[in-house]
């Protein structure tokens, strides 16, 4: 007799309210549709920095004082096969190309290659122009379109444009495109898999219907939240992937349990109540485990992680409510018609027992050590590549090779020095004196001379440069000249690098921004002492990256502790066992290590890069690893909870016989678990066609982890471990059993 606990009572309320629930769900779906016309509009591609770090605050100070957001700096490369950049016709064509900016409504400064030889390539056939738009906010889509339209392509020359604003525009476009591509691939594959699992067209299409509804609600909720909060554009794809996977998984568990109860002759209302008490409760606790894991992202003061936490929580809440309340309402209406349009597949077992899985479970139970050690060794080997992982922050290479931004960066890398695009910025301040006074300039000159010979520094530029063209005295004489008599290029330099009491110096590294040498250079500069009367703060992409890496490494242990402690408590409450939650956590760590090992091989070392159409960055984005950890740690609990719930149910029914309950639980749940896993793998696999590298990596990482989790850990390692633990599996002190609430 089913004990009438909380979830049984919830299930018994759904049947009489079924039509109200369905009508409300349909109304919500219809209300979501109009908001999806321009779904990416409120989202940002920024958010990879620690907003509380000194480097972020320094960058904000510079932007505010100089009167423009750093995202409003544009570079335009001009190339000619016949003309050289030092010829007057080349420069005339550039000026004609930029003449349309005269009517651009926002004030801007233009830095021509004729004023700076560093803007001319070695072969003299390429040169770039720098345009700084003096706006405190990044240009919106309309203003950016006007800006790019104002720049015309000169005859017989090629032109390529880059900058953070253009990069953002392309990421937004590619993200929306990736959503459509993934949906186009994943939906038919999911339908076929569900059709094979259920053998009924009605049962197969119902999860797709509800999954589509979940997707609409998730995207709309994020759109609304994005209007008030700063959310990363990457949230869309990853929240949608998580929501779809959980929705389809949960639908499988609910529908399979409901059909099993109907097969046992239970009436509809009772079948709904029992399904809620069993599968519904397991789903609730699984969702709670995912929520706890994802909420750990709130501990990090980094916007992309905050965004993923918001997106993940929205996805989980929508998926759980849909599975536990909306889906049973549909089942209550369909009743036995859930089996309508049955398809008889050859060799498919019509019952709810699986002879093949029973056979495998019996083998594992009979010889647990034959399975335990080989699988454990295999999983450790899969995770081994992670020991050589290198961490960093993503750069322009996350965009597809065909994109405008990527082509710009590739050209810049060929003709100039791409490292100069991400310099270290030194904010030099003279709190009590004019920064261009003789005393301050002398001290800045001394600092530049001190730093210029550092082996990691390629060059320093600003009001004082390391090129040796001018002496200290010449700099003092130059800047003592009244501004109205200064050359136009010097006026622009001062306007974009100095204020009354501060100056910004650009330090170009000999290495890329994520390289260990550049990271060490940032630390060296921070420890460099400046002359009395001056202060120095460090910012720029390399410094921002260092602070992100440092901050994440500081908080990560606390996030892990948060996840593991609360996951343990949730499983303790659900399974009423002291040791099984510990085992579950260790199993999750094994699937995570396999996932990270695969990410190192593919996205750091470049295996399969040719086939997956991306350029390896030589490191892993540390933010992505944290997101995957938090999402996957909860996600893996999905299968663990469902499997152990069935084993515990059998354990209580057959007189606490450990081995029999393991065989029964595996037999009744493994087909559904592996089918659910296949759907998740196909959905995540569909994101491998994504053009944005972070989305591609997330899809591969989750797919690998779920494959390992469902086909190796849950079906082989978990049962063999439980056989070895014997009666300790379900050990719970009597005093603890009395105080734990029974849900």
Automatic annotation (TrEMBL):
<feature type="domain" description="SSD">
    <location>
        <begin position="222"/>
        <end position="333"/>
    </location>
</feature>
<keyword id="KW-0812">Transmembrane</keyword>
<dbReference type="GO" id="GO:0005886">
    <property type="term" value="C:plasma membrane"/>
</dbReference>
<feature type="transmembrane region" description="Helical">
    <location>
        <begin position="555"/>
        <end position="575"/>
    </location>
</feature>
<protein>
    <submittedName>
        <fullName>Membrane protein YdfJ</fullName>
    </submittedName>
</protein>
<feature type="transmembrane region" description="Helical">
    <location>
        <begin position="672"/>
        <end position="694"/>
    </location>
</feature>
<feature type="transmembrane region" description="Helical">
    <location>
        <begin position="368"/>
        <end position="387"/>
    </location>
</feature>
<feature type="transmembrane region" description="Helical">
    <location>
        <begin position="205"/>
        <end position="225"/>
    </location>
</feature>
<dbReference type="Pfam" id="PF03176">
    <property type="entry name" value="MMPL"/>
</dbReference>
<feature type="transmembrane region" description="Helical">
    <location>
        <begin position="700"/>
        <end position="725"/>
    </location>
</feature>
<dbReference type="InterPro" id="IPR000731">
    <property type="entry name" value="SSD"/>
</dbReference>
<feature type="transmembrane region" description="Helical">
    <location>
        <begin position="582"/>
        <end position="602"/>
    </location>
</feature>
<keyword id="KW-0472">Membrane</keyword>
<feature type="transmembrane region" description="Helical">
    <location>
        <begin position="20"/>
        <end position="41"/>
    </location>
</feature>
<keyword id="KW-1003">Cell membrane</keyword>
<dbReference type="InterPro" id="IPR004869">
    <property type="entry name" value="MMPL_dom"/>
</dbReference>
<feature type="transmembrane region" description="Helical">
    <location>
        <begin position="312"/>
        <end position="334"/>
    </location>
</feature>
<feature type="transmembrane region" description="Helical">
    <location>
        <begin position="231"/>
        <end position="255"/>
    </location>
</feature>
<feature type="transmembrane region" description="Helical">
    <location>
        <begin position="282"/>
        <end position="306"/>
    </location>
</feature>
<feature type="transmembrane region" description="Helical">
    <location>
        <begin position="622"/>
        <end position="644"/>
    </location>
</feature>
<feature type="transmembrane region" description="Helical">
    <location>
        <begin position="179"/>
        <end position="198"/>
    </location>
</feature>
<keyword id="KW-1133">Transmembrane helix</keyword>
<dbReference type="InterPro" id="IPR050545">
    <property type="entry name" value="Mycobact_MmpL"/>
</dbReference>
């Amino acid at each position: 007799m089913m004990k009438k606990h909380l979830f049984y009572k919830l299930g018994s309320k759904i049947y009489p309210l079924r039509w109200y629930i369905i009508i409300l769900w349909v109304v919500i779906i219809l209300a979501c549709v109009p908001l999806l016309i321009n779904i990416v509009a409120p989202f940002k591609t920024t958010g990879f920095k620690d907003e509380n770090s000194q480097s972020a605050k320094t960058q904000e100070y510079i932007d505010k004082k100089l009167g423009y957001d750093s995202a409003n700096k544009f570079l335009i490369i001009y190339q000619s096969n016949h003309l050289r950049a030092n010829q007057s016709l080349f420069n005339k064509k550039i000026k004609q190309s930029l003449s349309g900016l005269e009517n651009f409504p926002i004030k801007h400064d233009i830095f021509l290659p004729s004023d700076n030889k560093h803007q001319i390539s070695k072969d003299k056939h390429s040169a770039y122009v720098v345009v700084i738009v003096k706006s405190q906010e990044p240009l919106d889509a309309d203003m950016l379109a006007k800006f790019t339209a104002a720049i015309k392509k000169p005859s017989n020359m090629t032109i390529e444009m880059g900058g953070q604003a253009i990069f953002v525009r392309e990421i937004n476009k590619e993200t929306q495109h990736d959503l459509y591509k993934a949906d186009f691939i994943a939906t038919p594959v999911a339908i076929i898999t569900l059709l094979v699992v259920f053998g009924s067209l009605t049962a197969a299409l119902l999860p797709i219907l509800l999954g589509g509804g979940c997707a609409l609600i998730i995207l709309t909720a994020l759109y609304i939240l994005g209007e008030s909060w700063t959310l990363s554009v990457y949230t869309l794809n990853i929240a949608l992937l998580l929501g779809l996977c959980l929705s389809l998984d949960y639908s499988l568990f609910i529908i399979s349990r409901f059909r099993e109860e109907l097969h046992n002759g239970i009436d509809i209302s009772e079948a709904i109540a029992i399904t809620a008490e069993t599968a519904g409760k397991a789903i609730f606790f699984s969702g709670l485990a995912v929520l706890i894991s994802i909420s750990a992202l709130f501990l990090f003061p980094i916007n992309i992680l905050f965004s993923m936490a918001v997106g993940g929580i929205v996805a989980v809440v929508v998926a759980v409510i849909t599975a536990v309340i909306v889906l049973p309402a549909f089942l209550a209406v369909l009743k036995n018609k859930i089996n309508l349009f049955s398809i008889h597949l050859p060799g498919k077992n019509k019952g709810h027992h699986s002879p093949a899985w029973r056979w495998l479970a019996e083998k594992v139970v009979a010889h647990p050590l034959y399975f335990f050690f080989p699988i454990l060794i295999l999983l450790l080997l899969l995770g081994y590549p992670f020991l050589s992982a290198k961490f960093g922050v993503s750069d322009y290479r996350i965009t597809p090779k065909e994109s405008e931004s990527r082509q710009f960066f590739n050209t810049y890398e060929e003709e100039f020095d791409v490292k100069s695009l991400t310099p270290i910025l030194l904010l030099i301040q003279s709190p009590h004196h004019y920064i261009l006074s003789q005393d301050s300039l002398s001290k800045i000159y001394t600092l530049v001379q001190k730093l210029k010979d550092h082996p990691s520094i390629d060059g320093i530029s600003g009001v004082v440069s390391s090129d040796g063209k001018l002496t200290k005295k010449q700099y003092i004489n130059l800047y003592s000249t009244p501004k109205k008599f200064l050359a136009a290029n010097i006026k622009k330099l001062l306007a974009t690098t100095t204020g009354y009491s501060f100056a910004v110096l650009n330090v170009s590294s000999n290495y890329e921004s994520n390289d260990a040498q550049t990271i060490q250079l940032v630390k060296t500069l921070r420890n460099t002492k400046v002359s009395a009367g001056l202060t120095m703060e460090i910012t720029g992409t390399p410094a921002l990256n260092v602070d992100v890496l440092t901050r994440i490494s500081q908080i990560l242990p606390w996030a892990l502790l948060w996840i593991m402690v609360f996951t343990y408590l949730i499983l303790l409450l659900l399974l009423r066992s002291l040791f099984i939650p510990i085992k579950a956590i260790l199993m999750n760590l094994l699937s995570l290590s396999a996932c990270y090992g695969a990410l190192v091989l593919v996205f750091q070392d470049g295996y399969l890069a040719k086939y997956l159409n991306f350029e390896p960055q030589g490191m892993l984005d540390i933010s992505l690893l944290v997101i995957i950890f938090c999402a996957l740690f909860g996600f893996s609990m999905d299968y663990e909870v469902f499997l152990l719930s069935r084993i515990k149910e059998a354990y209580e029914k057959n007189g606490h016989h450990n081995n029999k309950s393991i065989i029964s639980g595996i037999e009744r749940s493994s087909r559904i678990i592996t089918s659910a896993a296949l759907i998740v793998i196909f959905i995540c696999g569909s994101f491998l066609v994504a053009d944005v590298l972070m989305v591609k990596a997330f899809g591969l990482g989750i797919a690998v982890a779920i494959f390992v989790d469902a086909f190796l850990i849950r079906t082989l390692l978990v049962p063999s471990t439980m056989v070895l633990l014997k009666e300790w599996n379900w050990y719970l002190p009597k005093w603890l059993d009395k105080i734990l609430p029974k849900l």
